[in-house]
Design goal:
This protein is mainly α and 208 residues long. α3 runs antiparallel to α4. The N and C termini lie close together (5 Å).
C-alpha cells in the first residue's frame, strides 16, 4: 500500500481517494518570496548608493547655484550651469559605483542617454523654479528672493527630478544585458536541480 507525502497541516491521502484541495509544489512559494526579497534588497541597495551620489552632487549643485546667484547670474542660467556640472559628477559616480556591476554598453551611448534624461530632469527643476520666481513672484515678492529660488529649484524641483532620474537611469542607461540573457538558462538549471532533489528525497517516494 502506498500513500502520498502529506502536505503540512493535512492528513495522509490514499491514492484512490479524491483530492480535497489543491497541492502546492514544495518550495515554490518560499523560492518566490526569496526572489522577491532579494530583488527588493537589491533595489534598496541601489537606492542607497544612488542617494549617496545624489547627496554629494546636491551639495555641489547648491554651492555652484549660490555662487552664481551671488554673482548676479540669471536664475535660470545659474541653475543650468550648476546642474550641468553636478550631472557630470553624478554620471561618474553612478557608472563606476552605483551600477558598476552592470554590463557596459558604450561610454558614448550611456552618456548621451544620461544627458538626455538629465535634460528632462533639469526641465522639471527649471519648471518649478520658473513657476515660483516668475509666476508666484508676481503675486508674492518673497518668491523672487534667492532663498525662494534655491528652495524651489533644489528642494521641490530636485525631488521630482531625482525620482525621474533614478527610474530612467536604471531602466534605460545602465541596463542588465547579461542578467536578462542568462535568465532562461538559470531558470532551467533551478528547475532541474529541484527535480533532482525531489527524486533523492526519501519522503517523496512511495512507501510500500
Amino acid at each position: 500500500m502506498s500513500y502520498a507525502r502529506p502536505v503540512s497541516g493535512a492528513s495522509r491521502v490514499q491514492p484512490d481517494q479524491p483530492a480535497t484541495g489543491s497541492y502546492v509544489s514544495p518550495g515554490t512559494q518560499p523560492r518566490g518570496l526569496r526572489a522577491l526579497r532579494a530583488r527588493l534588497g537589491g533595489l534598496v541597495h541601489e537606492l542607497g548608493k544612488f542617494g549617496t551620489v545624489g547627496a554629494v552632487t546636491y551639495v555641489l549643485d547648491t554651492t555652484i547655484l549660490n555662487l552664481a546667484l551671488s554673482a548676479g547670474v540669471n536664475p535660470l542660467l545659474a541653475k543650468t550651469l550648476s546642474t550641468a556640472v553636478a550631472a557630470t559628477a553624478a554620471f561618474v559616480g553612478n557608472r563606476y559605483w552605483t551600477w558598476r556591476d552592470r554590463a557596459r554598453s558604450g561610454l558614448h551611448r550611456e552618456y548621451v542617454l544620461y544627458f538626455v534624461f538629465n535634460v528632462v530632469g533639469l526641465g522639471i527643476g527649471l519648471g518649478c523654479l520658473g513657476i515660483s520666481h516668475y509666476v508666484l513672484g508676481r503675486v508674492w515678492p518673497v518668491f523672487t528672493t534667492q532663498l525662494a529660488d534655491v528652495i524651489s529649484a533644489n528642494v521641490v524641483g530636485m525631488a521630482g527630478g531625482t525620482l525621474f532620474r533614478f527610474w530612467s537611469y536604471r531602466r534605460f542607461v545602465f541596463r542588465t544585458h547579461s542578467v536578462i540573457a542568462a535568465a532562461p538558462e538559470l531558470m532551467t538549471n533551478k528547475l532541474t536541480s529541484s527535480d533532482n532533489d525531489a527524486r533523492h528525497d526519501p519522503l517523496t517516494r512511495d512507501v510500500r
